[in-house]
Amino acid sequence: MSQSKSTFPNGWAIDTPPDLKNSSDKDDYHPVFKAFLAGSFSGTFSTILFQPLDLVKTRLQNPGQHVVAAAVNSRIQPGMMTIFSNIVRQEHVVGLWRGMVPSIARCVPGVGIYFSSLHWLKAKMGKTRGDLGALEAIMLGVVARTMSGVALIPITVIKTRYESGVYKYNSLGGALKAIYKAEGIRGLSCGLGPTLARDAPFSGLYLMFYTQTKQNVPKEWMQSPTAASIVHFSCGIVAGIAASLATNPADVLKTNMQLYPDKFPNAFSAAVYVHQTYGVKGYFKGAVPRMLRRTLMAAMAWTVFEEVTRSIGLK
Questions:
Q1: How many angstroms separate the CA atoms of 271 and 96, rounded?
Q2: Lower Cβ count inside 10 Å, N or C end of the chain?
Q3: Phi, psi of 216 (to 5 degrees)
Q4: pTM of the model
């Protein structure tokens, strides 16, 4: 004999049939699973499209690139277009998508974990994106990104090394084995501190700027699907620029630690090297391609996520 949920407005009765209780549990988890799928879907296209910008950013932040540049043409810091043209000349156009496999292996599940964690945390707080205050948005973004960042740090290390051109791994599995054999668990988690110091604040600040900007948009603009997409994308652009600039120093330290773990065993040693070699501007190396990539990628991811969640009835 089954009971309907309306029979028990204050919760499940003691004699609730087990099959109905299990059905409710499934319903509780279903929106989180849908949020994961929507997030992963939104991350796939943006990852592939903007991979060249991430590759150029990593090469700009690689200290080895500057040693080579100084030896060739006396320039201590090659520019973004110089790196871009060198990649095309030496590795052809396809070289701009070097590191695509680890990028997808990291970004796609990472975006999925982030959005599903965000949805789960908001549900626990009884909030929606429309009711989030500035501090609540920062807190949720930081916690959600920390969860995905810790889970995927080994892939982050491999992705950075693939893109740098310093390491010649043949496959994702081969890279995991090589790093573990040579450096152990520490090698697979190097740069975790700066990675979290980059990603967690980025996500928190991004979500804050995104939600606050969106709340200031006239409500009638959100009624039209076309106008809503433009609003989501524009809010994402504004949020991405601000969050990218604020977190670029941590990204520089992360890249140095993951490429040269013996030389930079901790964030402090990397910070000292960057400051002594390049000064304050060294903390903003690769800021332009990173800002372009993170801004456009996050804006696209949120736009696609908003549309997918609306179409599958998650909102």
A1: 28
A2: N
A3: -90, 0
A4: 0.69
In three state form, how does the secondary structure of the chain look?
A: CCCCHHHCCCCCCCCCCHHHHHHHHHHHHHHHHHHHHHHHHHHHHHHHHCHHHHHHHHHHHCHHHHHHHHHHHCCCCCCHHHHHHHHHHHHCHHHHHCCHHHHHHHHHHHHHHHHHHHHHHHHHHCCCHHHCCHHHHHHHHHHHHHHHHHHCHHHHHHHHHHHHCCCCCCCHHHHHHHHHHHHHHHHHCCCHHHHHHHHHHHHHHHHHHHHHHHHCCCHHHHHCHHHHHHHHHHHHHHHHHHHHHHHHHHHHHHHHHHHCCCCCCCHHHHHHHHHHHHCHHHHHCCHHHHHHHHHHHHHHHHHHHHHHHHHCCCC
pLDDT tens for each residue of 277-308: 999 999 999 999 988 888 877 777 777 777 77
pLDDT < 50 stretches in the chain: 1-29, 67-75
Residue 48, both tokens: 């592939």
How far is CA 74 from each of CA 59, 77, 268, 286, rounded to the nearest angstrom? 18, 9, 28, 20
Q: What is the pLDDT at residue 226? A: 76
**294, 202 contact by CB (below 8 A):** yes
Tell me what pLDDT residue 9 has: 41
